[in-house]
UniProtKB/TrEMBL annotation:
Alphabetized UniProt keyword annotations: Amino-acid biosynthesis, ATP-binding, Kinase, Mitochondrion, Multifunctional enzyme, NADP, Nucleotide-binding, Oxidoreductase, Proline biosynthesis, Transferase
Subunit comment: Can form homodimers/multimers.
Official protein name in the record: Delta-1-pyrroline-5-carboxylate synthase
Database matches in HAMAP family: ProA
Domain Aldehyde dehydrogenase positions: 260-524
Length: 699
């Protein structure tokens, strides 16, 4: 509990009137039933009517029950509570106000939680048209205004107003286009349309907002959130105190840039324009971006040097991450070449006909490719990812929201500016957005109504965190890259040494680097085995022995703690298997379905390996490092997917497209094809390249 963490808490409550009304009705009903049973008989009980109950009497009867409830709940946490009843006059009389302040301060000092309510047994009914009056005076007519008045009086740091909705919406919740406002500024008040008041409350959301603004002007931060069905972790108050994005936060200062929700909306709108461009225009944008990478090379490298210097000084990035963060002229040239490949592929992407069917006479059906929608790509210290993913999004007509690691903030900013400059040539500048605010990944994953696909690029922890947080949004990616190389008994010496060295040592931090080397048992204590060991030692690769490998050796390397480890460095596990089938079984059990390799001269063994293994990438006599969009000829990739639906393996342009069905008819109805109908289905497959009568260019 926050109280036990040393935080001072006060609760402003309602419910005394409702509590007392229920209690008094029960008492009156019981009393009437007894009297009528004695004088009139049982047959008249059904004709009893309850009198209208006066609110002040209900409050008096309900206060004790309400406090008993709070006492029972807080006693479970060994926390003491105290009841404080106030009225408007207690704040207008200086002596009473001072006494109230002193009492509350003393209760807080003793770690007692004050339960505060208006003294409804003596106060007059609230005036319907009374309102908040200026900054220094507030008319207490409900618990919202009372909470605001107390928050300012006690100089509270935070006021949390709980409601039965998620927060403040721009129009009544449940209506079309109603959007939750994450951050509300007093100047935006006129843009809000309020709904009706709740069944039991007297203020409604409008009263909450007015009270919140008054408290904000008095120096207290305010959040309005859902107290009935709290989201995020299920503990709405602690989530708010911990800074999580819950409900509506009231702020007096409006940031200069758009919110992430506004950025997403801008990207979606501009993305639709991008998708409607002619393929030549999308290709021109990508080619221009490739040119700008070369032309602005000095600016990019200067920004990257700042990021590198800061990362080195901070000392928290491992060498592998530093290598990913670093850009060079060669890297930029390679990026430009990859982008030009994507520009060529963009010519035949959006609007491509995959299938054409004549359903019936004058009823033609097409399946065509379309963009997925809005992509959210979250990447760590790898700035080269930004132009690659941007080019793929442009080629596929998708809107793009980018969230880069803070380690590459300067480089990402320059690369994003260049990307938007390229997009400007055809009026779709806002289609690619860079999130520069301090949005947490969890908060971005909550935008399930605005984002269609999340693609994480980074550590296995990042991917797992996103997969857990992304409720309702598909996540494309892999959580681990545990890649295997299996050396068969019929392997060539020269090929084995080359492939193992390249798979492990070319770029150990890559997700397609070898992590486990499987050796056929017959190769132990052979010249080939010795050459493999010598090569790994010369490359300074630390070897961990699997349990079977360790059992064959008198003096073995350190035993591997697990056979399911992604080392990401010059380290690997070595294990022994009896056959190709045992290698396949081992990979299925301990691998991550990323990339796995067999090295053998036996074609039959190789084909069985390729067919039986169900990893995303399966290679024969080739390095695992070929599992890459650029090396596959895809131009670039947004990531490597180990999922079993949609895209799998290196995900390039094709993986960012989905399809829609287009049906062209001439007044056809389903009834025409019923038993007594006049038409029959044909379902003829038509050539994809054949033009249909009257068909317009889809672009």
């Amino acid at each position: 509990m926050l109280q036990n963490q040393g935080r001072e808490m006060m609760i402003v409550t309602s419910g005394a009137v409702a509590f007392g009304k229920q209690r008094l009705r029960h008492e009156i009903l019981l009393s009437q039933s007894v009297r009528q049973a004695l004088h009139s008989g049982q047959n008249q009980l059904k004709d009893m009517s309850l009198p209208v109950l006066e609110a002040r009497a209900c409050a008096a009867a309900g206060q004790s029950g309400l406090m008993a409830l709070y006492e029972a709940m807080f006693t479970q946490y060994s926390t003491c509570t105290a009841q404080v009843l106030v009225t408007n006059l207690d704040f207008h009389d200086d002596q009473k106000r001072q006494n109230l302040n002193s009492t509350l301060q003393e209760l807080l000092r003793m770690n007692i939680v004050p339960i505060i309510n208006t003294n409804d047994a003596v106060v007059p009914p609230p005036e319907p048209n009374s309102d908040l009056q200026g900054v220094n005076v507030i008319s207490i007519k409900d618990n919202d205004s009372l909470a605001a008045r107390l928050a300012v009086e006690m100089k509270a740091d935070l006021l949390i107003a709980l409601s039965d909705v998620e927060g403040l919406y721009n129009s009544p919740p449940g209506t079309d286009d109603a959007k939750l406002i994450d951050i509300f500024y007093p100047g935006d008040q006129l843009s809000i349309t309020y709904g009706t008041k709740s069944r039991v409350g007297i203020g409604g959301m409008e009263a909450k907002v007015k009270a919140a603004i008054w408290a904000l002007q008095g120096g207290t931060s305010v959040v309005i959130a859902n107290g009935t069905h709290p989201k995020v972790t299920g503990h709405v108050i602690t989530d708010i105190v911990e800074g999580k994005k819950v409900g509506t936060f009231f702020s007096e200062i409006k940031p200069a840039g758009p919110s992430v929700e506004q950025q997403t909306e801008m990207a979606r709108n501009s993305g639709r324009s991008l998708a409607s461009l002619h393929p030549d225009q999308r290709s021109e944008i990508i080619c221009h971006l490739a040119e700008l990478l070369t032309e602005r090379k000095e600016d990019i490298l200067a920004a990257n040097k700042v990021d590198m210097d800061q990362a080195v000084c901070a000392g928290h990035l491992p060498p592998a991450m530093l290598k990913r963060l670093s850009l060079s002229p060669a890297k930029l040239n390679s990026l430009a070449i990859g982008l030009r490949q994507i520009a060529v592929l963009a010519q035949d992407s959006v609007g491509r006909v995959l299938r054409r069917t004549r359903v019936a006479h004058n009823l033609e059906l097409e399946q065509i490719t379309i963009p997925i929608g809005v992509l959210l790509v979250i990447f760590e210290a790898r700035p080269d990812c930004l132009p690659q993913v941007s080019a793929l999004a442009i080629a596929s007509g998708n809107a793009l929201l980018l969230k880069g690691g803070k380690e590459a903030a300067n480089t990402n900013r320059v690369l994003h500016q260049i990307t938007q400059e390229a997009l400007t040539m055809h009026g779709v500048r806002e289609a690619v957005q860079l999130v520069s605010t301090r949005e947490e990944v969890e908060d971005l994953c909550r935008l399930d109504k605005m984002i269609d696909l999340i693609i994480p690029r980074g550590s296995s922890k990042l991917v797992r965190d996103i997969q857990r947080a992304a409720k309702g949004i598909p996540v494309l990616g892999h959580s681990e890259g545990i890649c295997h190389v299996y050396v068969d008994a019929d392997a060539s010496v020269d090929k084995v040494v080359k492939i193992v060295r390249d798979s492990k040592c070319d770029y150990p931090a890559a997700c397609n680097a070898m992590e486990t080397l499987l050796i056929h048992r017959d190769l132990l204590r052979t010249p080939l085995f010795d050459q493999i060991i010598d090569m790994l030692r010369n490359e300074r690769v630390k070897i961990y022995a699997g349990p079977r490998f360790a059992s064959y050796l008198t003096f073995s390397p350190s035993e591997a703690k697990s056979l399911r480890v992604e080392y990401g460095d010059l380290e690997c596990c070595m294990e022994v298997v009896d056959s190709m089938q045992e290698a396949v079984d081992h990979i299925h059990k301990y691998g991550s379905s990323h990339t796995d390799v067999i090295v053998t001269e036996n074609e039959s063994t190789a084909e069985q390996f390729l067919q039986q293994l169900d990893s995303a990438c399966v290679f024969w006599n080739a390095s695992s490092r070929f599992a890459d969009g650029y090396r596959f000829g895809l131009g670039a990739e947004v990531g490597i997917s180990t999922a079993r639906i949609h895209a799998r393996g290196p995900v390039g342009l094709e993986g960012l497209l989905t399809t829609k069905w287009v049906l062209r008819g001439n007044g056809h109805t389903a009834a025409d094809f019923s038993e007594n109908g006049t038409m029959k289905y044909l379902h003829e497959n038509l050539p994809v390249g054949q033009s249909l009568p009257g068909q317009r260019d889809s672009n």
